[in-house]
Specification:
Layout lengths: L5 E2 L8 H14 L7 H14 L3 E5 L2 H11 L5 E4 L6 H7 L4 E4 L22 E5 L10 H11 L2 E5 L7 E2 L2 E2 L6 E5 L12 E5 L2 H10 L4 E3 L2 E2 L10 H11 L2 H19 L5 E3 L13 E5 L7 H10 L2 E2 L26 H9 E4 L7 H12 L5
Parallel strand pairs: 1-15, 3-4, 3-5, 5-6, 6-9
Antiparallel strand pairs: 2-10, 7-8, 9-10, 11-12, 13-14, 14-16
Helix pairs in contact: 1-7, 2-7, 3-4, 3-6, 8-11
The structure holds ligand T4K.
Length: 372
C-alpha cells in the first residue's frame, strides 16, 4: 500500500475509452447543450434506474434547489435542518425565504418531525428536510404534518441517489426531491443535479424555469435561470450509470469492513444502518464520543497528520455561519442535538476504490490510543 493521501472521497471514474466514444458523438452532431440527445437519454435512464416518473436535469444541485422552490412559488418561512451542507439554506435565501432551523433526531441526524410543529407560524409555507448521508427522513411523519398545515415538502436529496425506503424510492416522497451529481457524490456528472417531479406538467414548468423561463421561442413568462446540464456532463452520467451497481457494491464493502473493524473501539460509534431497504453508502460518519481518548478535532488532526483527510461534515452548523447566526431559530438552545452531532461527527473516507489495506490503516490510526 502506497502512502498516497486518502481523501474523504474520490470520484468514481469509468474507463476513459467509454467516455471518449460519447465525446466523439458530440463532436459529430455538434449539439453541446440545451436539452440535446444525451440529456434526454440520461433523464430517461435515470427515471428507470431510480424508479421515479420524471426527472429534470440541472447543472448542479444548488441551482436545482433554488429552482424547486421557485417552481412551487415558496415564500415566507421554510422549516429546515441546520445540520446540512450550506447550500440547503442558501437556496432559501436566494429566494428571499427565511430559513427556520429545527433540531435533528440524534439517531438519524435528520430533521426531527416531533419538533416541526412548534416552529410553524402563519408565514410558514414549506418544509425542506435533508436525507442526511442518504439516510431517509421519517417521510410519513413529515407528510402528515405538511398535510395538516397545508405546507409543501421539498426534500434536499443530494445524498440520496438510489436510496429506497420501505415503499420504493425515497425520491418519490414530498412535492419535489432534489439530487446533486457533484464529483463527490455517489453518482456524478462532474457537476450536476436534478429535480424529481411527480408529473409531466411540473417537469415542463421546471424545464422552462431552468431555461431562462422560455415557454417557446418568443415567449418568456417568468424570470427563469440557466440551470441546464451540458451534453458532456449528461454523456458522462450515461457512462457512469453503466457502472453504478458495481460502484455501490464497492461502497457497501467499505461500509461493512469499517463496521466490523470499528465495532469494539471504545468511544467510536457508527451511525445505525436502519430505515432504508436499499442504501447507497454515500458517507461513513462516526461519532467520537466522550470515552474516546481524543476529541473529534484531535482525531481529525491525527488522521490528517497521517495523510488521511476525514471531514467534519457538518461543522459548523449552518445556523452558526455569520449569514444565519442572527436568526431567532439559530439559537443553539433549540438545536442541541444538531450542535452535539456537529461536534462529534467525523466522516471517514469512503469510495468504491478504497482498498482494504487503506481502510485498515485508517482504523489503526483511530485505534492507536492517545495523541500522535
Ligand atoms: N445539499 C446537500 C445536502 C449537499 O451535500 C450539497 C453538496 C448540496 C445540497 C449542493 O449540491 P451541489 O450544488 O454541490 O451539486 C463538497 C461538495 O462540493 C458538495 O457538492 C457537497 N454537497 C459537500 C457535502 O461536499 P467540499 O468543500 O467538501 O468539497 P472538496 O472539494 O473539499 O472535496 C472533498 C474531497 O473530495 C477532496 O478532499 C478530494 C475529493 N475530490 C473532490 C473533487 C471536487 C476529488 O477527488 N475530486 C474532485 O473533483 O464540498
Amino acid at each position: 500500500m502506497s502512502d498516497k493521501p486518502i481523501y474523504v472521497t474520490q470520484p468514481f471514474l469509468p474507463p476513459l475509452e467509454e467516455f471518449t466514444a460519447y465525446l466523439e458523438r458530440i463532436w459529430e452532431n455538434k449539439t453541446l447543450t440545451n436539452g440535446g440527445p444525451f440529456h434526454q437519454q440520461l433523464e430517461k435512464a435515470l427515471c428507470e434506474y431510480l424508479g421515479v416518473n420524471h426527472i429534470a436535469l440541472f447543472n448542479n444541485g444548488t441551482i436545482a434547489l433554488i429552482t424547486a422552490l421557485q417552481a412551487l412559488k415558496i415564500k415566507g418561512e421554510v422549516i429546515t435542518t441546520p445540520y446540512s451542507f450550506v447550500a440547503t439554506a442558501h437556496s432559501l435565501l436566494w429566494n428571499g425565504i427565511e430559513p427556520v432551523f429545527v433540531d435533528i433526531d440524534p439517531n438519524t441526524l435528520n430533521l426531527d418531525p416531533s419538533k416541526i410543529e412548534a416552529a410553524i407560524t402563519s408565514k410558514t409555507t414549506a418544509i425542506m428536510p435533508v436525507h442526511c448521508y442518504g439516510h431517509p427522513c421519517n417521510v410519513e411523519a413529515i407528510q402528515e404534518i405538511a398535510d395538516r398545515h397545508n405546507l409543501k415538502v421539498i426534500y434536499d436529496a443530494a445524498h440520496a441517489f438510489g436510496v429506497d425506503c420501505h415503499c420504493g424510492s425515497v425520491l418519490n416522497h414530498g412535492d419535489l426531491s432534489v439530487l446533486s451529481f457533484h464529483a463527490t457524490k455517489v453518482f456524478n456528472t462532474f457537476e450536476g443535479g436534478a429535480i424529481v417531479c411527480p408529473d409531466a406538467k411540473t417537469k415542463r414548468h421546471i424545464d422552462q424555469l431552468k431555461n431562462f423561463g422560455f415557454v417557446d421561442e418568443v415567449t418568456v413568462d417568468v424570470a427563469g435561470i440557466n440551470g441546464k446540464m451540458s451534453e458532456v456532463n449528461a454523456a458522462f452520467g450515461l457512462v457512469q450509470l453503466n457502472h453504478i451497481d458495481a460502484a455501490l457494491d464497492g461502497r457497501k464493502k467499505v461500509d461493512t469492513l469499517y463496521r466490523s473493524l470499528l465495532k469494539d473501539v471504545v468511544g467510536i460509534k457508527c451511525l445505525e444502518d436502519t430505515g432504508k431497504k436499499v442504501a447507497n453508502y454515500s458517507y461513513f460518519p462516526i461519532l467520537v464520543e466522550q470515552d474516546y481518548p481524543l476529541t473529534r478535532d484531535e482525531l481529525y488532526q491525527k488522521l490528517k497528520d497521517c495523510n488521511i483527510y476525514a471531514r467534519r461534515y457538518f461543522y459548523p452548523l449552518i445556523s452558526q455561519f455569520p449569514t444565519y447566526k442572527n436568526l431567532n431559530s439559530s439559537n443553539s438552545k433549540n438545536l442541541l442535538n444538531a450542535l452535539d452531532a456537529s461536534e462529534k461527527v467525523l466522516c471517514l473516507p469512503i469510495y468504491p476504490d478504497l482498498e482494504n489495506g487503506e481502510i485498515k490503516k485508517i482504523v489503526n490510526v483511530i485505534n492507536k490510543d492517545g495523541k500522535s
